[in-house]
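pasting for the record
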Amino acid sequence: MTQIADIILSLVLLSVLFCLSSSRMMILVKWIAFQGIAISMIQLFFHQQTGFANIAFAIIMSGIRGILIPIFIYIAVKKMGIKREIEPIIGYHASLFAGLLMMVFAAFIGKKFNLHSIGSNPLLLPTAITTLMAGMFLAMTRRKAITMVIGYIMMENGIYLVGISLTKHTHFMIEFGILLDVLVGVMLMGIILNNINRTFDDIDTTLLRSLKD
């Protein structure tokens, strides 16, 4: 179980690096979908007793994180005709290097916590911190609003992993409520992005500076 969990967490870290270094929107959508499924299933490998409720919750979470939310983003990308992020605030090579630094920092910080609940899974908390910071970095350094939405979702994935790291038992109802908020937020962001695209023929957030009261 521990080996499978480590493989999944390693793939999550790999997805973070691909998201930071990629300019193509469809690739970002695919990686965020994979990340959502992997993170939703990971909690099954951190409980000695995996009952029907845990499995059902993981399947529902995978459906929302890995299918439903990415579909909304995919529809928005297709409708607006966005193919790639152009001229990010921080370049892709620099972003990839920043992602590697985040991993080193997260590994250092993770050792400082010395949590008993993750004693057998030392990769969990560093992955959580890296995903959280990478999502924040993605939202702050990209110009396209749709990429900022993807960064926001990645941040939520990191927060979920932090929750697993800090508690022996996942609070399913609380997390499900948060996930529904994220789903509603993504739907609202899709509407807002559509309105921005109609007004400016683009979703570059720097264009919002031209708005006046």
